[in-house]
Specification:
This protein is α+β, with helices and mostly antiparallel strands. The chain folds into two domains: 115 residues, L-fuculose-1-phosphate Aldolase (3-Layer(aba) Sandwich), CATH 3.40.225; 155 residues, Class II aldolase/adducin N-terminal domain (L-fuculose-1-phosphate Aldolase). Helices cover 41% and strands 17% of the residues. It has a nine-stranded mixed β-sheet, with helices on both faces. Strand 7, helix 9 and strand 8 form a beta-alpha-beta unit. The longest helix has 21 residues. The protein is elongated, with a radius of gyration of 19 Å. The protein binds zinc ion. Zinc ion binds next to loops. The site of zinc ion has 6 residues, from loops.
């Protein structure tokens, strides 16, 4: 087996992508995931030579220059990724001037990275400034969360509170709440900038009528965050059209946050 495929975090990355497809979140070529590799992983597993240079559509932020990422392919299908990683993912290093990606491995048959590379690199830069341990940025189309954006007011405080009130785990997993963007055209610089701006405050940003962006220190954490928001959204979907008799009130939410030593988004709870 090629060295890169022996890297444990690459193995987890491929398994999570496979899971995302099986959850029905990433139809056709939907979804894209990027993961920063540690210097030790680069040293041990990544081929040193550049097999191709791919121009970046933006000048990458200084904080991501010289860093090495695994990233999914444009037009690639998540359902094929684990079975054919050499074609469907690439391992790239951002050049020192931020203008080029050096491809070390993958993207076989002249492929390239996701068209959402703008949003990924901007979100990595933002999250690394907030949390130097952040490694993963993940975009996907979870069914219930996406459907919910057709049905509820697109208000960060209202949506966060509604998701928190569905189950105890919500406020524990996303005490800062969820960021929300209105519908915007994807694959553009504008949506990348807007998502990265929200990521200063939130690890998860809902793209209305499209999907979600999530981030985390590991692939498991980023996936678990989105999975928890999606579960809460699924519960909300089941409740729509029904009269809610019981949910977790502000006092309960404060008690959960206190118990776990968390600070809920300021101003959301009475
Ligand atoms: Zn998408």
């Amino acid at each position: 087996m090629e060295k890169i495929l022996e890297c444990p975090s690459i193995g987890q990355y491929l398994s999570i992508i496979d899971n995302m497809y099986r959850l029905g979140w990433d139809e056709r070529n939907g979804g894209n995931v990027s993961m920063l590799l540690s210097p030790e992983e680069v040293e041990t597993y990544v081929p040193k030579e550049t097999i191709r240079e791919i121009p970046l559509p933006i000048v990458a932020d200084e904080i991501v220059r010289g860093k090495t990422f695994a990233i999914t392919r444009t037009g690639g299908y998540f359902r094929n990724t684990k079975g054919d990683p050499r074609k469907n993912i690439g391992v790239i290093t951002i050049s020192d001037d931020g203008k080029i990606a050096h491809l070390h491995w993958g993207f076989e048959d002249n492929g390239s990275f996701t068209s959402e590379v703008y949003a990924h690199l901007m979100c990595h830069a933002t999250r690394l400034k907030v949390n130097p341990k952040n490694r993963v940025v993940m975009h996907t189309h979870p069914t219930n969360l996406l459907t919910l954006t057709h049905l509820v007011k697109l208000d960060e405080k209202e949506l966060t509170l509604a998701l928190w009130r569905t189950m105890t785990e919500s406020i524990v997993v996303f005490p800062e709440g969820v960021g929300v963007l209105p519908w915007m055209l994807c694959g553009t610089n504008e949506i990348g900038v807007a998502t990265a701006e929200k990521m200063k405050e939130y690890r998860v940003v809902v793209w209305s009528l499209h999907g979600v962006y999530g981030s985390g220190e590991t692939i498991d954490e980023a996936f678990g965050l989105i999975e928890t928001v999606e579960k809460a959204a699924q519960i909300m979907m089941g409740e729509l059209g029904h009269k809610i008799v019981n949910d977790i009130d502000d006092e309960g939410l404060k008690a959960i946050a206190d118990h776990f030593g968390l600070v809920p988004h300021p101003g959301y709870l009475k």
